[in-house]
Amino acid sequence: MTKSLHILTGITIISVLFGLYLAFGYARTDLEQGDIQRIFYIHMPSFFGAFTAFTGTVIGGVMYLRTRHVKWDSLAVAGVEVGLMLALLNLATGAIWARPIWNTWWTWDPRLTSAAVMALTYLAYLMLRNGIENADKRRLFASVYGIVAITTVILTLMIIRIVPDTIHPAVIGPSPQNAEGVFEATPRVAAALLPNLLIWSTLVPITLMWWRIRLENKSEHVQKLRMELINS
Amino acid sequence: MKTRLIIYFLLLVMTTPVIAQDAPEPTQLPVIPYYSSSQNFNVPIPPGWRQISTEAGLAEFIHPDVDGAIYALAVQAEDVQSALNAAFEQLIPELEIEQRLTGVITLDGLDWYKSLYDIVGGGNITAFVQQRDSTYYVLLYLNRNPEIDLYMLAIEAENNNEQVSIEEVLSQLYPGVDLEPITSNEVELSNGTWIRSTYQLPDGEALHTLHQVRFDTTYVVIERGDGETLDTVNKALFTALFGFFVTPDNDEYLLLGIVVAAGLVIGLILSMVVRYRNLQKDERLIQQLKQDVH
């Protein structure tokens, strides 16, 4: 099992480096936006990585509610932690892109607001989870919360279509009328974006989640030893 | 079976971001401008004109029916005049020139310094200069035909009366010109509706103008001669001027983005490593305690 994880980690590291080469070496400078446009090759894929991780949380939550097996709870918490990191990465890189393009770090645009709400929802998951002492109650609460929280991810994805008054550009399909910072998805852009999308939405979250599950298993094991020691 | 179902479900869920978006619509192919990667400026090649420069950072467009060329280049200088001098030194070191008019015009929030020159012996230069830090971007039209004068101007309309502005310019360039146009009519060109007027110079020669008002600015091209070059140069110069832009230098933001992204990923990994090591320590300690108890 550990060997598989090490192999996957190696593949992920090489893939991420390859993706970075595509973003910073292969893709050309956007003539209108300049080099900052390259951040997009991380910004967008990181959101889809978060989506994958949070989907893992839903799966973990549903399966835990059905089976009450701890391993599913480990998957759920791993999904939240990795997904939250990727969601923060998405928000941070978006803000850094926005500064030279929109002339502001942040604006209460529907897409940005929903993405921030999404990140805060999952941050609250971790805080509330850590606040519940009883392990069974904690897992039960976390499972339900994790399933419900996915609505914030779906809302973030759909908001651009529900509320068209947004300046956030759409990547797939036409951008809203008021979108600022739209760029042409040339074949070269697509060639750099698609591998990064694949890497950041599958390899990166799965590898990190696997390591996080390993950590959670260790934590469960140590907790079990602790209880044994107390009871002995 | 159960695992396979979970995988199918995961794949199905992963497709929702794509389904959530509309299908891409075919878009028109973009107009590819001349791009100087060394100087970071872009200028569209006007239809019918050809880019002939092989020198890095210098665009030179020519047209088979026009005895002249459009140039775009970037120079490092301390002020507009020294930037223009450097550009002339690079492009036409052999020619002697005299400045006729100068001023500033704001286009899309950016200041362009405009200058008109006459070449001693015949011909003229229309130059537009834009400053970005210590770099000056020069866009100029060089008319080499000694038989005609050709100038282009962008001027703020005086009290929204473009005719007054044009007359002022004509008076400065051609003292004694009869400011009552002989003919004046609207013409439809590919870049919009323009007013074409013909004036008479004191020596009887014709002076042709083409002008258009956009917002508060009057764009006017002036030709002393037969008026045959006016349309071609007008279209080309405005295409180049309106389409000229400098690719912004924002590397520092990209670097910041990379550092922040790397920091977040490394932060999570380090946090997991530290937590795992702490758990290993706890595990060893518990096992030690267990042994001590037994």
For the structure shown, list the relevant keywords.
heterodimer, A: 232 residues, mainly alpha, Four Helix Bundle (Hemerythrin (Met), subunit A), globular, B: 294 residues, alpha+beta, 7-stranded antiparallel sheet, 5-stranded antiparallel sheet, elongated
Average pLDDT reading of chain B: 86
Per CATH, what is the topology of chain A?
Four Helix Bundle (Hemerythrin (Met), subunit A)
The helix tally of chain A amounts to: 6
Major β-sheet annotation of chain A: none
Distance between the termini of chain A: 32 Å
Portion in strands of chain B: 35-45%
Read across the widest sheet of chain B, the strand sequence of neighbours is 3-4-5-9-8-7-6
Show the largest interface. Answer: A-B, 57 and 51 residues
Regions with little confidence, pLDDT below 50 for 5+ residues of chain B? 21-30
Largest sheet of chain B: 7 strands, antiparallel
Average pLDDT number of chain A: 91
Report the C-alpha radius of gyration of chain A, rounded: 20 Å
Pick out the low-confidence regions of chain A: none
Helices and strands in order:
The complex is a heterodimer of chains A (232) and B (294).
Chain A lengths: L1 H25 L13 H28 L2 H33 L7 H22 L3 H28 L24 H45 L1
Helix pairs in contact in A: 1-6, 2-3, 2-5, 2-6, 3-4, 3-5, 3-6, 4-5
Chain B lengths: L1 H19 L12 E4 L4 E4 L5 E2 L6 E5 L5 E9 L3 H12 L5 E11 L2 E10 L4 E9 L2 E9 L5 E8 L5 H12 L4 E12 L2 E9 L5 E9 L2 E8 L5 H14 L1 E2 L4 H43 L1
Antiparallel strand pairs in B: 1-2, 2-15, 3-4, 4-5, 5-9, 6-7, 7-8, 8-9, 10-14, 11-12, 12-13, 13-14
Describe the protein in words.
Chain A has one domain (2-231): Four Helix Bundle (Hemerythrin (Met), subunit A) (Up-down Bundle). In chain A, 46% of the residues are buried. Chain A is mostly helical and 232 residues long. In chain A, 78% of the residues lie in helices and 0% in strands. With 294 residues, chain B is an alpha+beta fold. Chain B has one domain (34-246). Chain B is built from five helices and 15 strands. In chain B, strands 3-4-5-9-8-7-6 form a seven-stranded antiparallel β-sheet. At the A-B interface, helix 2, helix 3, helix 5 and helix 6 of A face helix 1 and helix 5 of B.
